[in-house]
Write a structure and sequence with these properties.
It comes from Vibrio breoganii. Residues 1-58 form the HTH lysR-type domain. Keywords: DNA-binding, Transcription, Transcription regulation. InterPro entries: LysR_HTH_N (IPR000847), LysR_subst-bd (IPR005119), WH-like_DNA-bd_sf (IPR036388), WH_DNA-bd_sf (IPR036390). The chain has 2 domains: 3-86, Orthogonal Bundle (Arc Repressor Mutant, subunit A); 93-287, D-Maltodextrin-Binding Protein, domain 2 (3-Layer(aba) Sandwich), CATH 3.40.190. The chain is 40% helix and 23% strand. The protein has 10 helices and 11 strands. It has helices spanning 3-15, 18-25, 29-43, 59-86, 104-116, 129-137, 183-186, 218-226, 236-240, 274-284, and strands at residues 48-49, 56-57, 92-98, 121-127, 143-147, 156-171, 190-194, 211-215, 232-235, 246-249, 259-267. Strands 3, 4, 5, 6, 9, 10 and 11 form a 7-stranded mixed β-sheet that branches. Strands 1-2 form a two-stranded antiparallel ribbon. The protein is elongated and about 90 Å long.
Length: 287
């Protein structure tokens, strides 16, 4: 079916007259009248009551109006998708961001991406870094923001954007807050860790030979530490905002409680077209 006829029908309704619809479509008024009449013949329905000064929608026309608008929207989406594909724009991009790194700037960048590439299906995964690395190894992620240095095969590109400072926190009345803490001081205690979707350990943050309590969100981490259920490694920036509830501990525990890389990771096995490159460049400017 000719969508120009359907467009004439929708424009006539939205503009209030066949004459105004003709101006909007840059057509003669007679063309719009004939297009709508042809559409009514095609459908074997009367869409407008023409007995009054201005055509009025019939009940059948009112019922079909929403479907007509949806059809025109689908046509626009189809043409945009075809245009993007011809220009090398991907159909779908999966972005994974470590939940420590997700912030308003990144969210706004993703909004801008979707505005710039409306035909691209954008999938956003907010996970722990070890889960993100697992998905990259399974070739399920296009672009990722992760923490730490992970060693993957040559099909993955790394770009260090920044560093995130972490620290060990305990309750305000825990004795470990009065000294520099070594690994041996933590034996027999409980580490509050983030929950992994794939039951994986974070080699940079999860200490061996320590009992772990896994939780999904930062507020639960802070609350458990505040009540002396255990201790945790968290971003220092977050810890500084909760000093009324917890204490930052000086530590001698290897790399733990120090700096972690913020890595922009891209899989070369995935479709790295115009949209992926735009997103990589945009995320890189945030650091």
């Amino acid at each position: 079916m000719n969508t120009e006829k359907i467009r004439a029908f929708v424009n006539a309704v939205e503009c209030g007259s066949f004459t105004a619809a003709a101006r909007k479509q840059n057509k003669a008024q007679s063309w719009v009248s004939n297009a709508i009449a042809d559409l009514e013949i095609d459908l074997n329905l009367t869409l407008f009551d023409r007995s009054a000064y201005k055509p009025i929608l019939t009940s059948e026309g009112q019922t079909l109006l929403l479907h007509a608008k949806n059809l025109l929207s689908a046509e626009t989406a189809f043409l945009n998708r075809a245009h993007h594909l011809s220009d090398g724009v991907e159909e779908r991009i999966v972005v994974a961001v470590d939940d420590w790194l997700m912030n308003q700037d990144i969210r706004l960048a993703l909004v801008e991406f979707q505005t710039t590439f409306p035909s691209v299906e954008l999938v956003i995964r907010q996970l722990m870094t070890q889960d993100i690395i697992h998905l990259i190894e399974e070739n399920e992620v296009d672009v990722a923001l992760a923490t730490g240095r992970w060693f993957l095969d040559k099909s993955v590109q790394f770009q260090t954007l920044d560093y995130i400072e972490t620290c060990l926190i305990c309750s305000k009345n825990n004795p470990m807050g009065q000294k520099k803490v070594a690994h041996s001081d933590l034996v027999g205690t409980k580490q509050i860790s983030r929950t992994s979707a794939f039951n994986l350990e974070n080699k940079y943050l999860d200490l061996p030979d320590i009992e772990h309590i896994n939780v999904d969100d930062m507020e639960s981490v802070i609350t458990l530490v505040e009540n002396d259920i255990g201790w945790a490694f968290i971003p220092k920036e977050i810890a500084l905002n909760h000093l009324s509830r917890i204490k930052i501990v000086e530590t001698l525990v290897s790399e733990k409680g120090h700096l972690l890389r913020v890595e922009l990771i891209t899989s070369e096995l995935r479709a790295n077209g115009i949209a992926t490159q735009w997103l990589k460049n945009k995320l890189a400017t945030l650091y």
